[in-house]
């Protein structure tokens, strides 16, 4: 029984980490155009 709970815990941890990475990656992709716009604006001035 302990083996099954260990596998379930590992699966939950894996999903938490995977979703966290997806969230962070998505936020970085959303921020990228704004970062480029800020750099372009700074280069113009």
From TrEMBL:
Bilayer-crossing regions: 13-38
Keywords linked to the UniProt accession: Membrane, Transmembrane, Transmembrane helix
The protein's name: DUF2474 domain-containing protein
Protein species of origin: Caballeronia insecticola
